[in-house]
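Quick one, T. Sequence first:
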Amino acid sequence: MIKGNNFKEKIFPPFALFCTFLGVILLLIFLVNILIDGLSRIDADFITSLPSRKAEKAGILTAWTGSLWIMIMTALISIPIGVCAGIYMEEYSKKSKLNTLIEINIANLAGVPSIIYGLLGLEVFGRLLGLGNTILAGSFTLSLLILPIIIVATRESIKAVPKSIKDASYALGATKWETITNHVLPYSVGGILTGVILSISRAIGETAPLIAIGALAYVPFIAQSPFDEFTVLPIQIFNWTTRPQHAFLVNAAAAIIVLLLITFILNGIAVYLRNKWKMNLRY
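Structure tokens:
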């Protein structure tokens, strides 16, 4: 039995290293192919041009502005609700069967396929509330998608705050609200921001929920308000990849580069905030 365990311990590290290198190599192959195909297509005209039936004249202006609208509106809707819900569940809610059931369901909702949220958004926001296929309907739908992630991230960040910090605050006569706002949140804000940014970056790359609520593949105008119809970069990429002309595939590769760049920037900001938060912690 001991020999078997020793063999497993010896074989596991090289196997894990092989799996890591395999994933990295496949990712590099994908990135290199995308860069070769699409990098030469990215220029000012591509960024500032409207969609067109002619590949050489087509751009991503409506797509990236639509993604920007969706990102901002989703953040405005989901961040206050998610952070407040996480604070309430961690600091105020009492242990009960109902609260335990809610906590389990919130954790499980993070793993629900995104198309389910799209169908829910179509019925509730698109039809019952009459929002149709507008930016607001898409933002509400994506907010439902990322709310469980923000709530879980908020709770885990608050749990990481040492109990001694809270006890010292209470010992000095602070109320629960003063303890949360002056001590708990400042110490946990880095982890909360990291979870928020990563959830927003996930929302930017979603396609299925927005297609389900009726987001358009071809929008020849820039959205001016949350009640306008819209498209986003993932849908524009999907639309171009279905075209038979090779020039549209080049456009799709260029749009993928732009979308990856946005995602990498958001993830980089999340890493920076987390590291800065850890460096500034003084218990």
